[in-house]
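haha ok so turns out i had the wrong file open the whole time. this is the CORRECT one, sorry everyone. sequence first:
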Amino acid sequence: MTAVLGLSAYYHDAAAALVVDGRVVAAAQEERFTRRKHDPAFPSHAVASCLASAGLSPADVDFVAFHEKPLRRFERIVETAVAFAPSGFRSFAAAMPGWLRDKLRMPRSIASSLPGYRRRVLFLEHHVSHAASAFFPSPFEDAAILTLDGVGEWATATLGHGRGGRVELTHEQRFPHSAGLLYTAFTTAAGFRANSGEHKLMGLAPYGEPRFVPLILERLVDLKEDGSLRLDLSYFDFCRGLRMTSPRFDRLFGPPRRPEDPITQRELDLAASIQCVVEEVVLRSARHLHARTGARRLCLAGGVALNAVANGRLAREGPFEAIWIQPAAGDAGGALGAALFVWHQLLGNPRAPGGRSAQGGTLLGPRFGAEAVRAELARRGVPHRTFSDDERLCDEVARLLAGGKVVGWFEGAMEFGPRALGARSILADPRRADMQQVLNAKIKYRESFRPFAPAVLAARAAEWFEVPPAAASPYMLVVAPVRGARRVAPGGLAAGLEALRSARSRIPAVTHLDGSARLQVVGPEANPRFRRLLERFETLTGCPVLVNTSFNVRGEPIVCTPEDAYRCFLATGMDALVLEQALLVKEAQPSTAGAAEAHRARFAPD
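then structure:
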């Protein structure tokens, strides 16, 4: 037996992944255990969970692989500070405490966190880890590889090719010229937090007009036909100071919105404009990569690969027959890529993809069986019903959903990656015109414009969505239009955020302003109980679609344990909760007066 432990840590979205004899056994983000969103700390809880799932200790691990080369990243920070001296000193000084405390002593700190592990730690390049996470779990024997993010050591984007058990990166874009950092700059200009608010900017884009695109391409970005770009650094401050944008950027577009201020038409138009530019970066890069490699398939990773709108355009318009996107495309996925790179490329072990993803439904986190749930409910004295079989449970939950109830759904192994896929989900009826606002206001405690995603049965997806085979993602990573036959003409002439009140399809709760939806296609092999629930809901309503959003509230990671789920259930407007085979109804619970208010008060706007 050969066990390889992959690690990602010290920047954001720390994670661990375990590969045993080439099989992806477990993977999890540290945030799920510590309840600190995007937790960058060493993933000690995630490591313990992964090892426990295989019955191993650190002493049983043969190789530990870290997702990047810290000294090369440090080299970039030092060289950038020198190049922009003296103004670059502020960002350098802010970074130094973390480097002196943890990052320059990383081999020692990793070894001390893994008592019993005696071998050296392998350090891989950041974008190599991304590329490995994209290709090795994919269902393809041969594929082009595209990685795009903010920055690793020096690279901000790479092009490459994967064949059999090897990946090769042939071209790279280098810091400070970065599509990811460009998108993050506009994220902060719109009043959202860097490295966590980019998905909000993507969700805001359809409400605006892309009127700033010519200005961005004329002043800020020189975008080439091959997808490479150069930034005019006078508009940005990330090389010099502690902000993403400079005063010159502010003079051109206006000062950044404060998080507590209302969203105006300017923010809507900024979001629409930068979304268009980044989509063009992705499409041009993919076309260039296709021309260079001649590959028919494409694998994607890196933070920009979480931009589902760009992915949708790539699936519909791009030159590739099929695409596969790493579900944990950001830094967390680097842990998995590092482990798989060691197994396949360093140890020389072959792959046998067979047309199926080695990551399955990416349900790789800890699981809590019926016994653990019973113990937790007994400890709390919680009123509940237990169902002896899945059919009866799914029948009852489908009836609740069809009646307009919002249900927390907790079962099986936790998802690896930022999306809830039917293991740690909040579910609702997508046909209800008010459901988007109800979920945002009373369940998620977040901005009203935020869209929700549909989970749809694979056999029905093409009847409800314009989804080519390349866009049929089981991981909620591709946006596709709702079919014209399911659309309705919006009432009135509302513009901007006022358009939220206009129904746009027969499933308005999951239809964004532009008629699109970020799709999870639920196939026969993914999650049997979740698929059965969708089937029962279709039998009752004729609709094979459910609202599927992550089981958390604003400012918190997705729930991990039954205790997390019960606490979130009590503190929100959810009507019912499924914990494995147990069903809890809110009205039967002990008084929760004030719980929701206390929960909301914990979280500042993010």
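Confidence is low (pLDDT under 50) at residues 602-606.
again sry for the mixup
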